[in-house]
Design goal:
Elements: E1 10-12, H1 15-20, E2 23-27, E3 33-44, E4 47-53, E5 63-69, E6 75-79, H2 83-97
Antiparallel strand pairs: 1-3, 2-3, 3-4, 4-5, 5-6
InterPro entries: UPF0473
Pfam families: DUF1292
Protein name: DUF1292 domain-containing protein
C-alpha cells in the first residue's frame, strides 16, 4: 500500500532533535563525516523523514532521509532508495516550505 504523501497527512516530529540536538553527523561512503542541520522532521503514515541541510549550503540543496527506529529505541538515518518515495517526500517538503499562493 502506498503512503498518501499529502500535506494533510504530515505529523511534525522532534525525535531527531530530541536525540541529537540541532544537527547530526553523517558518514558518507568514503568515511568522511559531514555535519547537517536538521531543517525539518515529519512522519507520513507513521514513517519518519528528516530534511537535512549542510550549514554552508543554500536552502535549495538538502538531503531527504528516512528516520528508522531501532528495536532498542535508537535512531538511524537511512537513505531512501526508492526514487518515487524520495520524490514524494521532497515535493511534500517543498510544498510546506514554499507554499504556493492559494487560488480562490
Amino acid at each position: 500500500m502506498m503512503s498518501d504523501f499529502s500535506v494533510e497527512n504530515i505529523v511534525w516530529t522532534q525525535v531527531l532533535k530530541e536525540a541529537f540536538g540541532e544537527s547530526v553527523e553523517l558518514e558518507d561512503d568514503k568515511g568522511h563525516i559531514e555535519v547537517y542541520d536538521i531543517a525539518a522532521e515529519f512522519e507520513v503514515d507513521g514513517q519518519g523523514y528528516a530534511i537535512l541541510v549542510q550549514p554552508d549550503r543554500t536552502d535549495e540543496e538538502y538531503e531527504v532521509l528516512r528516520i528508522v527506529k531501532e528495536a532498542d529505541g535508537g535512531l538511524q538515518l537511512a537513505t531512501i532508495d526508492d526514487d518515487e518515495e524520495w520524490e514524494n517526500v521532497s515535493e511534500l517538503y517543498d510544498e510546506l516550505t514554499f507554499p504556493e499562493e492559494d487560488e480562490d
